[in-house]
């Protein structure tokens, strides 16, 4: 039997379980992703998508199983700035008194000294990141004055500034304008070419077909996982969404 | 005679300064206000107003026990402050009672314990001064302790100010980039307990929560930048302390109450006239309608 080289996998989650005070949120979930792969995470509300993200970032502890990031434990991945998390719009207090520049600078905090004093390289990384998401005109705009799409791009810029090799995106396309959607899809292609690994959760089936090489269908555990063309079938989607047909969910075109 | 001297602004300000106890009260209260004001911006943004209420009341038995045992105030306050939060977390996790209810019942329980202890432990603890503060009667050892704790809290908050801001804003990101979120959580709690102890001296245990909430809320209405928010919060807290003490001196009013009332008035002013977020938006008044 050939032994698996775990270094090949950016993300390697094996039989992970997460429970909150005895309530099971996720069980026996597996996921393996290589550099340059984009994987869609699809499931109902409460199916464990956010929990999956939380487990990978180390925000919640897993009660069973094993997670290796680039062959290492989650703790070292945090120290190495390997994973960036782009939150859902609802997960952020948009009235927080902070501007675009300062949010993006937060992407550099993990690699700064204890006082979080930006070095020349940090300033440059933030500048570049903001340029890539096309927000250079809004450097000092408070995030409360941004549109939903601009705010989403701000957090994407934070992930870029962090220079993480793995991006976790929670509903990157929800509540954004067409321009932002186009910009994000272009960035995804660039990320893929740069060898970054992307895991994104989405409700939009069209996006899955468009960007995702792989798809992970979950409902508390993995319903199906594999190449989008093979796994993303009406039968699997129906199972994931508790028996509701995809036609009903997304229109007959899906 | 009092009315005569009141007529000139100069003597309104300088007369009280001739008294030693007033100089001490003004200095101590400004220091305490600065500490509470600094912390206040974090509590406001973290949504910890109720937690501030809980911790500041829960330190009461700690203060009494420490007093009885001859230990520093701050130690007892710290143990009970953090203990109350731990207990809140524990009860919330193990029962179906909602969080705000748990907070309410835990802190009132601790507070009641404190009151009972005061009446039981025969000592020179003045219940009135714990409940309502006594900035005019601060002893030398209290002065030293207040200065020490205040400096400690200000230094801690200054060192970790950016991390704490991140923790309030997006703890998930903080965790993802390897920042110790649990440490920051307890750091904020520790500072809260310590600020409650020093605040207790100037406005008393019942009103100290105002020192921890109002300046931050005022500042939140006035700016969109976190650093400015902290500065405005500290300044408004200091100014209210000074106003409160002068007013209480000249009109013979309860000092703690006067300080908090001054803060409340400043908040109301911001609420009505803040340039962007006030009801009447003063900016329009100055700039003119476009």
Can you put this structure into words, describing what you see?
- The complex is a heterodimer of chains A (254) and B (290).
- Helices cover 35% and strands 22% of the residues of chain A.
- Chain A contains 10 helices and 9 strands.
- Chain A has helices at 49-57, 74-79, 100-105, 120-132, 148-162, 178-193, 205-211, 228-231, 234-240, 246-250; strands at 11-20, 23-33, 38-42, 64-69, 83-86, 166-170, 197-201, 214-218, 222-227.
- In chain A, helix 5 runs parallel beside helix 6 (178-193).
- Chain A is globular, with a radius of gyration of 18 Å.
- The model of chain A has no long low-confidence stretch (mean pLDDT 90).
- By secondary structure, chain B is an all-alpha fold.
- Chain B is 81% helix and 0% strand.
- Chain B contains 15 helices and no strands.
- The longest helix of chain B has 27 residues, at 20-46.
- The A-B interface holds A 21, 54, 57-59, 75, 78-81, 83-85, 87, 91-93, 96-99, 102, 106-107, 109-111, 114-116, 142, 144-145, 158, 162 and B 45, 93, 159, 162-163, 165-166, 168-179, 220, 223-226, 228-229.
The backbone outline of chain A, from C-alpha atoms, is globular
Encode the helix/strand succession of chain A as letters. Answer: EEEHEHEHHHEHEHEEHHH
Helix content of chain B: over 70%
* Outline of chain B: globular
Number of DSSP helical runs of chain B: 15
**Radius of gyration of chain A, taken over Cα atoms and rounded to an integer in Å:** 18 Å
Termini Cα gap of chain A: 40 Å
| Major β-sheet annotation of chain B | none
Task: Indicate the structural class of chain B.
Answer: mainly alpha
Looking across the biggest beta sheet of chain A, what order are the strands in? 5-6-7-3-8-9
Q: How many DSSP E strands of chain B?
A: 0
Number of helices of chain A: 10
* Protein structure class of chain A: alpha/beta
Unreliable stretches of chain A (pLDDT < 50, length at least 5) are: none
Got a strand count of chain A? 9
